[in-house]
Every structure is written in structure tokens, then in C-alpha cells.
Amino acid sequence: MSKLVIVESPTKAKTIKGFLGKEYKVESSFGHIRDLPKSKIGVDVENNFEPTYVIPAKAKKRVNELKKLAEKAEMVYFATDEDREGEAISWHLQKIFQLPKDKQKRIAFHEITKKAIDAALANPRDINSDLVDAQQARRILDRLVGYKLSPLLWKKVAKGLSAGRVQSAALRLIVEREEERNKFKAEEYWTVEGLANKNSQKFKVALYQENKKTLGKFDLDKNKAQTAVKDIQLAELIVSKVEAKKTNKTPLPPFTTSTLQQDANRRFGYSAKQTMMLAQQLYEGIKLNGRGTVGLITYMRTDSLNLSDDFIEQVNNYLKNNLGSEYTVTGGRKFKKKSKLVQEAHEAIRPTDVENEPSEIKSYLDKRQYKIYELIWQRAVASQMAEAVIETTSVVIDAKNTPWNLKAVGSVMKFLGWKKIYQSNGEDNQLPELKKNDQINLEKLEALQHFTVPPARYSEAGLVKAMEKLGIGRPSTYAPTIATLITRKYTTKEEKRLAPTEIAIIVNKLLVEHFPDVVDYGFTAEMEDDLDHIAHGQKEWQPIIAEFYQPFIKNLNMKEKELNKKEITETATDEICEKCGSPMVIKLGRFGKFMACTNYPDCKNTKPLNGNGEVEEPEKTDEKCPTCGAAMIIKTGRFGKFMACQNYPKCKTTKNLSKSTGAKCTKCQKGEMVEKYTKTGKIFYSCDQYPDCKHAVWSKPTGEYCPECKQLLLHAAKNTIKCEECSFEKTE
Known about the structure:
Helix content: 25-40%
Structural class: alpha+beta
Keywords: DNA-binding, Isomerase, Magnesium, Metal-binding, Topoisomerase, Zinc, Zinc-finger
Strand content: 25-35%
Active site: 299
Protein name: DNA topoisomerase 1
Largest sheet: 6 strands, antiparallel, barrel
Number of strands: 33
Domain Topo IA-type catalytic: 128-556
Distance between the termini: 57 Å
Domain Toprim: 2-112
Shape: globular
Strand order of the largest sheet: 7-8-14-13-10-15
CATH topology of the largest domain: Topoisomerase I, domain 2
């Protein structure tokens, strides 16, 4: 063997292997092969923050295998991803192998195609120490914050909690949005809306002016709105003004990591983590018949909007051949990123070959992969297309002999341009041909009551957008940050939006009050900028960490002494314990707030609280305890409601309270599918005849059955229903 190429993943290795000759051996490191130890902090704060790296037990065998292969090779090429994480993996491998400098080279590419791999091998370089330093600085900063601050949360709030530099700033966004919602007071407002027609073509109209003055949102009350309706219904309606305006709409730029995550979440309901997993699969390679394994998209962790000149030319030729030259842009279109420094990946996310049309390769992709690929392909191609031309017509309609004017606004697409490839949602209000002094017929008009709504909780897409706007995190951190907040039970998903838990609100309050720098948006963004400067060789990493760490650890030591757990997690109440007469307090448990006796442990009386913080009285049932004969009551626990003996804690008998889905089990034909929880709190659905029938599914049954195979139909991704067995699928 003469040449060894090392990448991170087996899939990536397999794809690259297909492009290279027999003189190359392509191997995978299976991800990171060295890291800070799990059992201790692993950073010598007294010795210029020197890190101690260890090889995890699960990686030792692989590291030894790679080391032996490297020693035998004529040349070793480190071909890990082109970002900071990838550079660091190559650096760790280099340190372990200890090869002569002339026996090792770094190659980088942002797409896995034969052309890109050949170009990389023809232009090898040394490992970029600036990128390694930036990755190392991030890792050490995150370790210092996590390992120092998390134990304080365990002592002062509750066990099992964690804090992190980016994680805690993102949590603050979620909690502050909840506080806005709680403070919000709804205001009533009224509108007048309806349908008019001209020459049998209907169009929407709305009240616009009173005495020629444009109405504001809160200018109408109920009486005035109803008066306007009556007046207009009796009046002659005449067009007084028609104004048409052409607008050229520029396409959106190609995807960055952030915008891909946002669009996939909005359109398909995919989490940031799911989107990155699917994009990784497309990047590392998909097997296409007759062509081997092909990398379909460029590297997916990037905040660059740049597209290569080759790709722009490729798109230009594709558009000329398939749509016509009127859809092209002479010289291509360039987009500029507003941020000062973009990540090292050179390009936006795009298809590696525009000729790989989504419809042509659909049969080689699963449905989720296809949706992501189609989105990336359409967005990249559309970014290089001619502007869409939209004509917007605004029509003012006088209600004669009244103070009221109506307005109708409609849009007509004059030239599709980029929208021919990449359609966005939204319907145009099509207007008939209208001119001044035309008489209009009114079909329907009504006064509508509305109330202002509180700001919505963040969806994953909204949170990623907010993080990017504030400069919190970078492309590689958005998805893992959100995943961590969900895993750590700091947030739950309610109607696909992120709601903070009780414990999140308390932790955030503690951090904002006592560790403001850790959750300060400006400070977190400035730290990200510093990491970017390190990556570009403009700053040294140790002074950046020292500047953060010295005041941080001084404050932490002071707060260790000052903070009192009871003051943070307990709230006094007027309630008196009915069992021993002691005062009751609201305490914070692992799964939220509850009321407890202050005479604990002598008295263990506790009471659950509902979402409004009020004592939740147990629900009585007609069922008797099978152990002691007392009444069974319904209680609320970690995973929702369950049945328990009234004599608890003397009798600890409990029973599942399963929530029916209304769907019959299609396996045993006897039972019903009910909602249940795993040990980790994840919902699943199984037959209530368990253990006799072990039929179970992760997605919620609809209560309907597949028309093709008669098995359960399940709620799948956004607005999609799928069969549990066959390929049947439909839209809700």
C-alpha cells in the first residue's frame, strides 16, 4: 500500500474510494479520536489553559489500526471536513501518528465528487493551526463553563442540570419570549371585510378610509364597524382610483446552514438535528445506479452565500437549455454576507451537479432525503435566475354619500423568473379589469371582531434565526444546542413550538441575576467573533480564554457561598399542612413545582400543582385498590396522569392510565391502541392487550386504516399521513 486517505465517516470513505485508484487506501476514523476526559475537567487553568486529551476506550482499537496503516504508508492524506472540527480531527491524528512532515498532508474539499477529490490531491497543504486553535478554544471555553457552572446548579437548584455558554444564552431567548407572553394583555380591534364582484369575478375588499383618512388598527370599535357595514351595504360603490405598480422581486440567496434548517422546519416540520442528519447523508454520498456512490450536495455547515464560478456557469447553461435565456442573469448573481467574518467553508449549500435534477434521482433517495435535496437544488438554481416581475394593483372604492372607502389589492405575476423553479407559499387576490368610475357590486360585507395575540413561542426555525441574528453560535452549533435544551428538559415542544419548563425559568433567572456574562447576548456574540478572529490568525486563543475565565471563576466562587438553595427553589404560601399543622411551601422538583410540608422528613405530605400554580386536587375514581381495598385516585406524575392508591405512602400501588387513540389494534383485532410512555418520557402507542399483544408504533394512529393493506394510518411529518406497513401516504 502506498497512499492512505483518512476521513471521519465510513460512508464518506466509501464514496471517495470509488474515485481513487488502487494505490490509495481510504479509511475512516469514525469521528473524533481524542477529546478532553469525561471524568475530570481536563484543562490546566494554572498552566495557560493547557488541555489534556485522551483517546476514548471505544476509539483505542481504531486508533491503533490507523496508526499501523499510517506507518506503512508512503503518504498519509488527512481528508476530514474542511471546517474547524474537521481540521481538529486531522490535527489529533497527526499528533498520534507522529509521522515525518514529508509523509503527511492535509487535503480539503467542500464537495465529494471525483473532480473535487482530484483537485484536493493535486493541491495538498499543511494543517491550519489557526483553525485548530479556534476549535480548541471553543472546546476549552465550553468545558470551563460546563464543568464549573453545572455543579453549582446541582447544589443550588436541582441535580442533573447543565449550563453552557451558547446553550444558556439560547435558553434565555426561550424564557424571555415566555415572559413576554405572560405579560401580554390582549386588545380588541375590529375590521370590516368582504367580497365584491365585477363582471361575475369575485375579489376581496376591506374598509380602508373614513372621511379620506386611512384607518388605523384600533380606530374601529364594534358600533362604528357595524355602522360602516350598514352604510356601505346601502350605498352605490364606485371605483375612484386605480394604481398599478410593477415590482421586480430578487430571488433568495442559496442556503446557509441556518436558512436550510429554518426552511426545512417551516415546510416539513423537521428539527434542526434531523435536517443536518439528512444533509450529511446527501453530502457523504448516495448510490446511483451505474454511477457508483455520489456526493449530491456541498458541505452543509457553512454561513457563506458564495457560489463557485463553475457552478454559476453550469446553472446558466442548464437554464438556457431547459427554460430559455430570458430566465438567466448575465454574469451570474453574487450575494454578500452581512457578518464581518464567515466560516471557513467556501460556498453556500448547493447541488454538486445541477444536472442531478431532483426528479431524475428521486428513486435513489428516501422521502425525507428527497425533500431536503429538492429544496437545496431549487434554492441554489433559483438564486441564479432572472427576477420575478409582479404587478400589484391597488383599487380604492367610494361608498357614495357615506364617509367610507373600501380598498382592494391584487397581484398578478407578469414574469415568473426564479419563481418558476422555487415557489413560495401564498395566494394572490386576483382582481378583474377595473378602471375609474366603474360600478362595483357587493357580495358580502361583515364586521369582524379580533384580539391581538401574544408573540408566538419560538419554533426551531425561529430560534435558529434569532440565534443567527444575535450572533449566538455558528453553523455547527445551532442543531446540537437546540437538541441539548430538549434533552436536558429545559424546554418541551407544545404544538411544535419550544416552551420553557419550570426548571428552565428558575435556572435562567439565576444565571441572568448572578452570571450575566454567561447569558448576555452581546457578550456571547463577541466571544463568537473572537473565535472567528482566532480562526483567521488575528488573535491568540489563550488570552481570550484568560480574559473570560478570571472574572468568571472569581464570581463563581463568591456565588457558591452567597446563594441559598431554599431562596432559589422554595416559595412561601399561606397553606397549612392538614396532616401536621406546619406551613406548606412551593418547592421545585425534577419535573416541576409541587407543594410540600416544611416539617419534612417527619411529615412527607406533598400536593401536585397545576399549570396555574394552584393545588391540583386528586381525581376520585370508582376503582378500588387491588392491594388494600382503598379508593384509587388519579394523580399527575413525571409522564402525565396515572392511577394511585389513596393510602399512599402506606400503600404504593399504582396503575397506568392509558389515553385512548380510538384506533383498534390491527394485529390482535381485540385491543385498542393507547398512548404510553417509555422510561425516558417519550410517547409511543401500543395495544392495551399487552403483554398478550406487543403491537406498538411511535407515531399517533389517526383512527383510520390503510385502503391498500388495512393496517393503521399514522400521523407522520407535517400534514402527512402514512401507513405503518406499506408505502401508502396522503396529505391531511
